[in-house]
Fold this sequence. Notes:
single chain, alpha/beta, Aspartate Aminotransferase, domain 1, Aspartate Aminotransferase, domain 2, 7-stranded mixed sheet, 3-stranded antiparallel sheet, 13 helices, globular, disordered C terminus, pyridoxal phosphate, histidinol-phosphate transaminase activity
Amino acid sequence: MSAYRDKESSNAEGGSDITFDLSSNELVLSPLPTVLAAIEEGLPRLARYPDPTARDLTRAIAGHLCVSADEVAVGPGSAGVLQQILLALCGRGDEVVYAWPGFDAYPLLVAISGATSVHVPLTVSGGHDLDEIRTRVNARTRVVILCSPHNPTGVVIDHGELCGFLRSLPDHVVAVIDEAYVEFHRNSDPAGMPKVLREHSNAVVLRTFSKAHGLAGLRVGYAAGPREVVATVRKTAIPFGVTRFAEQAAMLSLRSEDELRERMAAVTAARDELTADLVDMGLPVLPSRANFVWLPLASAAESFARAAATAGVKVRACPGHGVRISVGDAEAHRTLLAALGQKDRGNRL
């Protein structure tokens, strides 16, 4: 087991300084002014511990999702909550099944729990092969992770296919539906989540404030699921894992749905323009429903990333699979496109 990106430097790739980092799917826009003001106001209270249960945020999330507070667990980012879930449900000899390539923290978090990762290749269209995932489920399987929109491809799982898959799982398996990027697909609307949770007692939905809400530096995320699962997950939480600033900022963000929709519209417009520019260059780009685009470049992925880095733009290469490019600002896109030989066609951000 190795540390998460332990050898990575944001400023030294490809032999040149990195001016634009389009590798981590961070929101290009700043947090809302009300959030920034609340953080500044709270600075004098840094000597105090936060609420260890993040009770106010838990209630706010429950109200947003139309579930009860005892069906919600919060933690330091969705990765932190996923670690809690895996520690609560898995141990040595157990297996966790998920699509690959995927979020590169999954293997680390599974290993920390003592379980074994089972990778299932994506389909040619960049989606989950639910039939193949189901065949990999056995008596040792404890968790199946489904990421929708998927990281790194941006492909969404069809709702009907998802429900059929959940019904097919044996009782001892919990499905974790990682929706870190769902707001870019459905704005701030929780859509079918309450219905999925009501109808499928084996489903846990995972979300974060790091992406659409722009709070990656504060580390706050949450899971919603069955009471008995959530109660166990809470037992593996780090004490005081959600800071006072994170709790306050997340609650303010939940109340700012109109501003969130405006921001999502701007990001998705920029994503679609970037996609069109790359397609015009003859590059393969999958339709994305997240704040990034995926180029299935196979063996050319690393050379593409090196070319971008030489121009000062860092992208995420998955060797042998493809390249993920986060949606950035206008100058970052212009620099990347120029490095790839594309004339500037502008950008809305």
